[in-house]
Amino acid sequence: IFEPLFSEASWSERIEMDVMALLNAELAVAAFLISFGALLGKLSPKQLVVLIIWESLCYCAHKKLILERWLDIKDCGGTIIIHMFGAYFGLACAYVLGPPSSTKKEKASIVSDLTSLIGTTFLWVYWPSFVAGILPPGVPRELALTNT
Question: What is the DSSP string of 18-86?
Answer without folding.
Answer: -HHHHHHHHHHHHHHHHHHHHSTTTS-HHHHHHHHHHHHHHHHHIIIIIIIIIS----SS-IIIIIIHH
